[in-house]
Amino acid sequence: MxxxxxxxxxxxxxxxxxxxxxxxxxLSGHGRNENDAExxxxxxxxxxxxxxxxxxxxxxxxxxxxCLIHDIVEIDAGDTYAYDSAGLATQKAREDAAKERIFxxxxxxxxxxxxxxxxxxxxxxxxxxxxxxAMDNLQPLTLNNSNDxxxxxxxNVTSEQVYGRQKKTKLGSEKLYELTDEILKEHIKKxxxxx
Amino acid sequence: MxxxxxxxxxxxxxxxxxxxxxxxxxLSGHGRNENDAExxxxxxxxxxxxxxxxxxxxxxxxxxxxCLIHDIVEIDAGDTYAYDSAGLATQKAREDAAKERIFxxxxxxxxxxxxxxxxxxxxxxxxxxxxxxAMDNLQPLTLNNSNDxxxxxxxNVTSEQVYGRQKKTKLGSEKLYELTDEILKEHIKKxxxxx
Lengths: 195, 195
Prior knowledge:
CATH topology of chain A: Hypothetical protein af1432
CATH class of chain A: Mainly Alpha
Strand order of the largest sheet of chain A: 1-2
Number of domains of chain A: 1
Oligomer: homodimer
Distance between the termini of chain A: 59 Å
């Protein structure tokens, strides 16, 4: 096996570990916690199916690969819950170190390419990154909604926290933000999200 | 929520069930069984990273979405192990019924689009379908190789069976077939695959 392919296959094996990084979100049907690989798979299909609702035209291949790789750094850095303020304070440093280690397994050109895609997602300035972020929000919201808001209740989440996070959905898709708003209002009314 | 978006979101929730369909393959590090969503996620990233080895030029967005959806029918039909001949005999009928039920949740145009992509993968005639099939083979092979061929040993798999299946990899990528052949020869030598 030549050196380039060897590095690529080493990376392929490394990212298998993402299947062991569990999130706070639960699968539908009041299932177990979801892992990062499942979350990313779901987001990428959603991006493909819902692309007509992106605020701006998107290159769907770029959105999909961004969705698929956006949590790879959590192999080292772990999952940081969206409403965990202590975790959020150290998240960037932990994820930067992970990004350097993990993408460095790849050949240099692909290290650059994937790092750039990862950074683009994080910076959230392009139409593709913004639409991918809308998926990153809408995917767990869909599961949590199907489970009667159990994840919000478990973490005592407030409407201020949820709306703070969901602002990013509006940047990616006005239409999907409307849907989000409708769902959130219902859960506030039911008391699943604190006022 | 309008009717179209409602159908799309219903489909999004339905496919969550794919995370509960477990395969015979084990995660690296002698881990638990892998599920279909994880397998599809892994294949789609591999397709993106290894596209330079496709025998023919591929539209990578089409390859990725094909990888992501190719096992959705297993929500109803279950996973059929590659070397389970009894299961393979009824696989097509079970998967056809599942395809009709599950894709019918979508708006008509997207039902047609996803059914066509699913059928294209199954028919394995286009460059995208062939490269996606190469990923469908190479992904579990990579995990099984990392686990000292445990999945082959567990199922008493023969070299004839493995090479029969891996022929499809050659159609999608000569280069990745060379790698496959190298790995298989090693496991035959070690006795993990029966002669």
